[in-house]
Amino acid sequence: GYALANEHYGEDRLNRLVLISDGGANVGVTSADLIAVHSQDADQEGIYLVGVGTGTAGGGYSDALMDVVTDEGRGAYVYIDSPAEAHRMFVDRFAETMDVAARGVQVELQLPWYFQMHKFYGEEYSENPEEVDPQHLAPSDAMIFNQVLKACDPQVVDYADEVTVTARWQEPLTYADKEVAVTASLEALLSGNIQQLLKGRAIVAYAEAVRDGSDEMVVRALERIDEVGEPTDPQLSEIRALLE
């Protein structure tokens, strides 16, 4: 597949390898690792792997293969269980599925000295940026980092102290390095609009409900969605329908 993609490679257009599979057991760990290595190599040339899972959930479909190769291949991973879903992902959301808007995104958070991360919900984090795999973002995509921070001593917190968030990425075709930073005081952050924070917490609760599978976690996720107070939000509406 990569040989064919390289044969027809064009610098001025999208170059994609699309893998459609039910993730069957005929692909072993060794084969999955080999595909992941090729995905990573091809990523250096801008050929991203898009994984399309098919088959009946609970009827033999395994997401292990797609999870590995799309993570390494930096492409989207979609699951298609009906013609309607295929139309939604490859027509209505074609750009989101196939395109890349920002390549190799990494986010740095600089906190006052007295804060420590108590809980983290996201892909991964480290004080060493070399240990964190950068992520690609599609058009209209978002990265959510839900964290619980605690001060070593609440008495030393100064609300005039500042927090800086720096995002670094590359342009998908030119590989030009980009960077943007935003700095705000703790006071400004605490007095600001919290709608996106509530939405992020609702999405984390949804992910935990899917992983846990219990009615209690599903109810908690629905309560988190209600807290956002945005009944017309398309992402939250879709999540609510899945939970219900």
Give the helices and strands, then pairings:
Elements: H1 2-7, E1 16-21, H2 29-43, E2 48-53, H3 64-73, E3 77-79, H4 83-92, H5 94-98, E4 102-110, E5 115-121, E6 135-137, E7 146-151, E8 162-170, E9 177-185, H6 186-190, H7 195-212, H8 215-228, H9 234-243
Parallel strand pairs: 1-2, 2-3
Antiparallel strand pairs: 4-6, 4-8, 5-7, 8-9
Helix pairs in contact: 2-3, 7-8
Write structural notes for this entry.
- The protein is of the alpha/beta class.
- The chain has a 4-stranded antiparallel β-sheet. A 3-stranded parallel β-sheet has the order 1-2-3, covered by helices on one side. A two-stranded antiparallel sheet has the order 5-7.
- Helix 2 packs parallel to helix 3 and helix 7 runs antiparallel to helix 8.
- It is globular and about 60 Å long.
Briefly characterize the structure.
This protein is an alpha/beta fold. The chain is built from 9 helices and 9 strands.
Mean pLDDT: 87
The arrangement of helices and strands along the chain is: HEHEHEHHEEEEEEHHHH
User: What's the shape?
Assistant: globular
In DSSP terms, counting alpha (H) and pi (I) runs of 4 or more, how many helices?
9
Query: What fraction, in percent, of the residue positions are helical?
Result: 25-40%
Question: Can you give keywords for this protein?
Answer:
244 residues, alpha/beta, four-stranded antiparallel beta sheet, three-stranded parallel beta sheet, 9 helices, 38% helix
